[in-house]
Amino acid sequence: MKFKKTIACVGVAVLLVTVAACGGKGGPAENGASKPSSSPSSSEGTAETAKPKVSMKIMGEFASSNLSETDKLLVKSIEEATNTEIKFDIPPSTGYTERLQLALTTGELADVVWFPSPDDAAFLKAVKDGVIVPIDEYLEGAENIQKYSYDVSWDALRVNGDGKVYGIPRTTVIRSDGYWFRKDWLDKLNIQLPENNEITLDQMIEIMYKFSKEDPDDNGKHDTYAYGWAMQPDKSLRPVFQNEQGLYGWQESDGGEYKYMNPQYDLNSNKYTKALDLTAKLFKEGVIDPDGPTIDGSKALERFQSGKTGVIDGFAGHYETFLNAGKQINPNFELAYVFVKNEQGEMKGLGQGTGLWGFWAITSSAKEPQRVVDVFNYMLSDEGWDSIYTGIEGHDYKVENNKRVYAEQPLETFVRKNMVRRANDYMFFINPAISEELKQILVPNIEKAVKRIVMSKDRNFTPAIAKTPPYLDFNKKFSEVTTKIIIGDAQSSEYKEVLQDWNAKFGQTYLKEMNDYIDQMENKK
Prior knowledge:
The chain is an alpha/beta fold. The chain has helices at 69-82, 96-106, 121-128, 136-139, 143-147, 151-156, 183-188, 201-213, 271-284, 297-306, 319-329, 369-379, 382-390, 436-451, 469-486, 493-524; strands at 54-59, 84-89, 112-115, 168-171, 178-182, 198-199, 225-227, 251-252, 260-261, 309-314, 335-340, 349-350, 356-362, 397-400, 403-406, 453-454.
């Protein structure tokens, strides 16, 4: 079965969530009165009332174990439209992994279960054991799921070597973010940004030196740093400005033994070591936060909001959240959102991920897998999507003078906003209650983050050799040498030495496996 191709777009999380899906059309019409009544149609998933009622249980990880009032109303509307009875099993988020593992061990599974990633070890074992079932045959009539999922997501869910799909995507954003600037610092130093908020890397670095050396907070002290950053979850560091220096993951190579190459593994390219050298230079000269190597992302955001740093990378949709948090610390806190062009003057950036924010896997416990797929397909229909995006009339909004008037305070939507996402509708992550003025600030930057993406051709594929203990042990050397180079304890030439050692022991097999996979996927198009 060939799924329909979708355009990679993006979403924005303002007042709602931190990750987003993607967009083209915008959300449901906000000026319409109540939701239009429509006759059941199979493509919308509303023909379920003609079938016997089916009970199903959904196990997922959400911010709360209890459904909010709007969640309950949404579930009721889905049940009525699909002639189902839906129950939820929502363990505390801190214990979800353990509860899921226990369910997989005992076999006491819900009909559909949420997994965080296609390479999750528990998921892969469950697939091998037949606990998770392929769903290709059930997707044949699921037009909405097909339409609003990325092709790359389906590729990521073909995990068993049989070409079959083992999950329903929970779509997320594919985008390439820009940078948040302290606009009050720009104003203090009389720095004017172009009207389109696009600058060159040289201009970016020039501003960074000013932020670090010219007292932008006007306190008479040398206590600010331009760029806020943090260590990765594995405690390693990465070079800054990778997009701006053309590091776009796996692309067609400029020649050599392999058709596809990632600069990070390319012995014949200096792109990656050049990025390391720039990061080390900025670190040495106090232009990027010296605390970055020892803090996580949340701490880096705190230092930006408190006035220790003046630039961080991040999602454009966080404008209002970041602004309010900063103003609580400093009433003069203001924000600007900036994109930095690459060295060729192009607006390009590596797209993030495979369009999956986890996924829903149907288990062998499901008596009617088709009905499970039909429920998710309904949620992505126009009718179902309107309820998920705008909520339920009389609770989330009311209709006055043929116009929807939304609740002033954002409602708790633990389940409603976190079941499905439409890959073609970034407006889902724009609170429908916000002003047109704020939308004009948010939407253009989100659209730009979507349009500029360059997708790595690896689709998050991991070659088999990279899962072996010897490889995993050796791989730590890359993190170690990268960190040492950035903090000034090693020269970038040492990275090439580790790379040569890797190439001799594992690289040739790794690169061949990766090239074979990419070639297979590219020829499938």
